[in-house]
Design the sequence.
């Protein structure tokens, strides 16, 4: 059986802790590999070597660092299919979806080609008599990222590309459920010319996470995962004096107004609700039709679309719309929440339970599931299901629908489908959610903006990628310089203006 280790100082190394966890094939339910779980000593070694490498990397001028980013992007394009295969093999998502995973990460890498412009400081000459003021952005040093299973390429790229372009060394701890893609990306970065030690990939569990959070050399931590873990990491990182940006769970609503194009709305809901088996933090999991007539017409359109969806292993190619969940535990949790919805009185319109696929009977599959007449008190509404389950909460009017979104504890993404510009503008202005779609179901910003939620979906002041990433991974130094060009001035003990 394959053993997956770590990436330290520019090469793959075996784990030495003696601890491992299993990596499954989600389609078959079989163990396909085991991944090493780092010990505190292994983490300390990785950080120490990263700190050594970072000194020279920070001294490399931004233009030369950007050239390596350019080469890295070209290699990702070259190996797109190989990377997508690795994503699909361990996560279970379809190959087209896996290519999208890699592509959205690549777009952030492409933006980081412009790092020299992002890293420019500011300058004011003659701020006072003979006085110049200027600021410079400098790297933090060694930083870390803890990334989730559901986007094995995209989110590591969101973290590593801006951090490294800014002159830092990166300790990446990917999910132990999907470890292989990060190692492949590390190999490509080395091939692109990245000095050994600037990127270290350390696989592990909570021991590795706590090692990152408590290590005095690591200056900042980025995390994507569930809200309870995001809160834990944010609090522990802050207690240790580290910067932290921690992104948690979501419960994304899509409001459908009576004037919306219901066919387009239904298509959007199917794609946003069931893509990647619902294992997306930006998935739409709650449809909010306004008015009974709108709700009835929407359900009528949704049912045939959902019933046509094909579920199966990624090896089936284009014949499959989405694949299995990542683990048996994830499958059991989603099936349990579907059962709770039935028990608590929601109307089960399409039942995805009991799905068995010939030849893959032990896979972690759940079929597409649609509920109607869900209420906010039900567990299927309150919890982030992270599975192929769409809940419909009927609303009497726009204000009631808006209040439903705003009262929810999560604030990652939301959407509205409407033909009315006033309604759309009002929604975008008032809703307390970080990313908003107007006739657009999954409003993930392009890579030159920034990604981030509000409320319990995000902890920290700065978002992922875009300009915020370079602010997060650098610190600002401001210099006040005076050159005495014939200026005569005696000593002064007064605090006064420079001018």
Sequence:
């Amino acid at each position: 059986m394959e053993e997956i280790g770590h990436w330290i100082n520019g090469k793959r190394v075996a784990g030495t802790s003696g601890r491992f966890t299993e990596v499954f094939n989600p389609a078959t339910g079989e163990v396909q590999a085991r991944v090493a779980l780092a010990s505190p000593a292994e983490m300390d070694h990785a950080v120490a070597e990263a700190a050594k490498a970072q000194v020279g990397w920070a001294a490399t001028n931004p233009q030369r660092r950007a050239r390596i980013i350019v080469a890295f992007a070209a290699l990702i394009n070259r190996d797109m299919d190989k990377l997508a295969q690795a994503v699909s093999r361990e996560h279970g998502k379809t190959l087209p979806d896996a290519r999208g995973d890699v592509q959205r990460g690549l777009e952030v890498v492409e933006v980081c080609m412009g790092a020299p412009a992002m890293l420019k400081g500011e300058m004011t000459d003659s701020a006072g008599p003979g006085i110049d003021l200027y600021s410079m952005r400098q790297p933090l040093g060694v930083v870390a990222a803890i990334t989730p299973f559901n986007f094995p390429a995209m989110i590591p790229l969101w973290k590593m590309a801006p951090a490294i372009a800014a002159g830092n060394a990166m300790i990446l701890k990917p999910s132990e459920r999907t470890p292989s893609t990060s190692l492949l990306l590390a190999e490509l970065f080395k091939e692109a010319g990245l000095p050994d030690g600037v990127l270290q990939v350390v696989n592990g569990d909570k021991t590795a996470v706590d090692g990152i959070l408590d290590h005095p050399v690591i200056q900042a931590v980025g995390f994507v995962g569930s809200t309870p873990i995001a809160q834990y990491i944010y609090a522990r990182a802050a207690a240790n004096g580290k910067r932290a940006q921690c992104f948690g769970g979501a419960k994304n609503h899509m409001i459908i107004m009576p004037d919306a194009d219901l066919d387009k709305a239904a298509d959007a809901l199917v794609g946003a609700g069931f893509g990647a088996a619902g294992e997306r933090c930006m998935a739409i999991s709650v449809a909010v039709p306004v008015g009974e007539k709108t709700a009835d017409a929407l359900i009528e359109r949704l049912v045939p679309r959902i019933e046509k969806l094909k579920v199966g292993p990624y090896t089936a190619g284009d014949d499959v719309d989405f694949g299995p969940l990542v683990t048996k535990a994830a499958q059991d949790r989603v099936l349990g929440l579907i059962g709770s919805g039935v028990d608590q009185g929601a109307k089960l319109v399409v039942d995805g339970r009991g799905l068995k696929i010939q030849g893959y009977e032990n896979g972690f599959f759940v079929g597409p599931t649609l509920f109607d007449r869900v209420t906010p008190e039900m567990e299927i509404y309150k919890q982030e299901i992270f599975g192929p389950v769409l809940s419909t909460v009927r609303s009497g009017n726009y204000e009631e629908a808006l209040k439903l979104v705003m009262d929810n504890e999560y604030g990652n993404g939301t959407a509205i489908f409407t033909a009315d510009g006033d309604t759309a503008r009002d929604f975008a202005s008032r809703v307390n959610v970080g990313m908003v779609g107007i006739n657009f179901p999954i409003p993930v910003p392009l890579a030159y903006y920034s990604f981030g939620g509000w409320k319990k979906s995000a902890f920290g002041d700065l978002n992922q990628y875009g300009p915020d990433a370079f602010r997060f991974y650098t610190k600002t130094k401001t210099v006040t310089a005076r050159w005495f060009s014939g200026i005569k001035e005696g000593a002064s003990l007064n605090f006064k203006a420079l001018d």
